[in-house]
Design brief:
Keywords: Membrane, Transmembrane, Transmembrane helix. The chain has 4 helices and 4 strands; from the N terminus they run αββααββα. With about 160 residues, the chain is mainly α. The protein has a domain at about 10-90. A hairpin with a 2-residue loop joins strand 1 and strand 2 (about 20). Helix 2 runs antiparallel to helix 3 (about 45-65).
Length: about 160
């Protein structure tokens, strides 16, 4: 199993690297701090140190979970939604939904009082109504007796 670590790389986002620091936080800090270190290489240490510390805090803040998603994920999804609304508008059609069956032709509703009416085949007869069935006496419950262990009395007619 030499490739087990490579197969599980996608599961390492929430893996703890240090106390209160996950792999995702570490990547966010590195991605924000590294450009700051390169850009501030010529600055004095008293200016450079607060910039690098601020960049590290910004990288950490961008990767903190808020409502189940990191802040950068919220921003990316919000940007994606705004782009989709600009491209397609606010109306959602069935073609936009994943997993729906696409029909070849669109169906339009017909007006109730329009020119198209329901046509019934005159050869087809309507089914006769089903007669109501009365309940037989055998299905009616027997009255309760005072003594359940006593022998049943024959019904008097």
């Amino acid at each position: 199993m030499p490739y087990r670590m490579l197969e599980e790389l996608h599961n390492r986002r929430k893996e703890k690297v240090a106390v209160l620091l996950t792999f995702e936080h570490l990547v966010g800090i590195i991605l924000v701090v590294l450009p700051c270190v390169v850009v501030s290489a010529g600055l004095p240490l008293l200016v450079r140190a607060p910039l690098i510390i601020g960049a590290a805090l910004l990288g950490l803040a961008l990767t903190l979970d808020v409502g189940g998603m990191a802040i950068y994920e919220h921003l990316l999804w919000q940007l994606r939604g705004q782009l989709r609304m600009r491209m397609h508008g606010r109306i959602i059609t069935p073609e936009m939904l994943t997993g729906t069956v696409q029909s070849e032709r669109r169906e339009r509703p017909l007006a109730v009082d329009g020119p198209v009416q329901i046509v019934r085949d005159p050869r087809q007869r309507r089914r006769p109504p089903v007669p109501k069935v009365s309940t037989p006496d055998a299905l009616t419950p027997a009255p309760l007796r005072d003594d359940p262990l006593a022998e049943p009395q024959p019904a008097a007619d």
